[in-house]
Amino acid sequence: MIGRILGLSLAVCALAWASDMTATTSNGSVVILHDNGRWEYYNNNSRVRDIRESAIPKDMQTTVSIEYESADKLRKDMRMRMEADFATEEKIKDSLRTLPAGGIVHFCVPEAQVHYGNPRTFTYTVWVGKKQVYKAPVSEAKAVPSETAGVTYLLSVPLYMKLNGKPIKARVEDSHSSIDFDVR
Q: What is the pTM of this model?
């Protein structure tokens, strides 16, 4: 009964305000009151912060995505390039041995969102199955343009192990937030 009254009062409070806000319930739980009347528990109760998209300045917003190039695609592309250069079959096979057996994970961002003048540092993590295979902080000053127009690779992580059907997961984090990806 108290939960229903609390929920109803939270909904009424949410409707009264024009934007999302946080509130603390009588039992100490922190909730987010949305401007459409919906509410939800805030997971990180120890540090309440404004998590609305509008609270983040436009120049600080970053849209990170993941591209995965499989080992098969890498081999096919390498063979095609070398055949175009009239390389011998022996040189082609030697070059194919140097490619990462698990492919490459690219952390991508639109070119317009890279801050070359005032670079930020993100921490990148990659797991294959349950094994963490890469974790390092990297400045976006090291970002390089990709072959896709308008897209920049913040980081490319080669996977030098056979995947054997294991899932690949990735994470990008800064001092304020993190985002997780299921790569494949």
A: 0.64
Tell me the pLDDT tens digit for each residue of 18-71.
467 777 777 777 777 777 777 776 665 444 455 555 555 565 567 888 899 999
Burial class (CB in 10 A: 0-12, 13-18, 19+), 47: exposed
154 in Cβ contact with 138 (< 8 Å): yes
CB 128 within 8 A of CB 71: no
Burial class (CB in 10 A: 0-12, 13-18, 19+), 172: buried
Output the pLDDT for position 43: 61
Residue 36 burial class via C-beta count within 10 angstroms: exposed 0-12, middle 13-18, buried 19 and up: exposed
Cα pseudo-dihedral 170, 174, 178, 182, rounded to 10:
-10
* Helix (H/G/I), strand (E/B), else coil: 12: helix
